[in-house]
């Protein structure tokens, strides 16, 4: 949870959960996994995973942080907020009632714009009808090559006010990607050690 961030397309981050696991080749050089290891080694309490945290594969344990839910309510200056820069809100280990609580906070703080990004578009579509979508919520999916272009099709089924794509790291061509119903696209290469 940071009041400021170096992520170019947002102004702040809010992490009511942290942890994730690999879903696609775009995860191979995950910045969040690297940062999680560093924060854990530094003794940052939020990253000392407890016995209730879990993950379903290579990655780092998904942990809920109910104590972080009210942070955006304390921010008086409007900002654009990337939700779960260190996790995926639609990870299978995040209970629906917790996702609903995150959506409630977003709804209760209309002065902020929230950007939620997921690699789990199938779960997003399954849950979309059960959630109340506030007007200040931008919903996005990640696509790194043509094999994952289907995620944009899933996103188009979601009643978000703004639908966006994160095509980063762009690892290959996306000839079948359609942009109808998409409002914003982030495109970028991979960075860091071993970037492809």
Mind explaining what this structure looks like?
By secondary structure, this protein is α/β, with parallel strands linked by helices. It has a domain at 65-187: pyruvate-formate lyase- activating enzyme (Alpha-Beta Horseshoe), CATH 3.80.30. The chain is built from five helices and eight strands. The chain has a six-stranded parallel β-sheet. Strands 2-3 form a two-stranded antiparallel ribbon. Strand 6 (137-142), helix 5 and strand 7 form a beta-alpha-beta unit. The protein starts with 11 loop residues before the first strand and ends in a 9-residue tail after the last strand.
Order of helices and strands: EEHEHEHEHEHEE
Radius of gyration: 16 Å
- According to CATH, what is the class of the domain at 65-187? Alpha Beta
Look at the structure and give the mean pLDDT: 86
User: End-to-end distance, in Å?
Assistant: 29 Å
**Helical segment count:** 5
Strand order of the largest sheet: 1-4-5-6-7-8
- Which topology of the domain at 65-187 does CATH recognise? pyruvate-formate lyase- activating enzyme
Global morphology: globular
Instruction: Please mark out the parts with pLDDT under 50 across 5 or more consecutive residues, or reply none.
Output: 51-59
Q: Note the main sheet.
A: 6 strands, parallel
Percent of residues in β-strands: 15-25%
Structural class: alpha/beta
Work out the number of β strands: 8
Give the name of the CATH architecture of the domain at 65-187. Alpha-Beta Horseshoe
Proportion in helices: 10-25%
């Amino acid at each position: 949870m940071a009041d400021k961030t170096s992520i170019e397309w947002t102004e702040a981050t809010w992490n009511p959960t942290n942890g994730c696991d690999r879903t696609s080749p775009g995860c191979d050089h995950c910045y969040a996994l690297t940062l999680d290891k560093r924060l854990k080694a530094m003794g940052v309490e939020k990253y000392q995973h407890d016995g209730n945290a879990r993950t379903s594969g290579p990655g780092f344990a998904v942990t809920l942080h109910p104590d972080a839910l009210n942070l955006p309510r304390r921010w008086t200056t409007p900002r654009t907020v990337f939700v779960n820069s260190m996790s995926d809100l639609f990870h299978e280990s995040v209970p629906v009632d917790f996702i609903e609580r995150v959506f409630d906070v977003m709804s209760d703080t209309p002065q902020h714009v929230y950007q939620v990004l997921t690699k789990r578009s199938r779960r997003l579509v399954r849950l979309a009808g059960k959630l109340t979508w506030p007007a200040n919520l931008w919903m996005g999916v990640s696509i790194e090559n043509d094999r994952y272009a289907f995620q944009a099709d899933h996103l188009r089924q979601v009643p978000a006010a703004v639908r966006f794509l994160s095509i980063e790291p762009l690892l290959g061509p996306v000839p079948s990607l359609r942009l109808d119903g998409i409002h914003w696209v982030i495109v970028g290469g991979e960075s860091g050690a071993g970037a492809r």
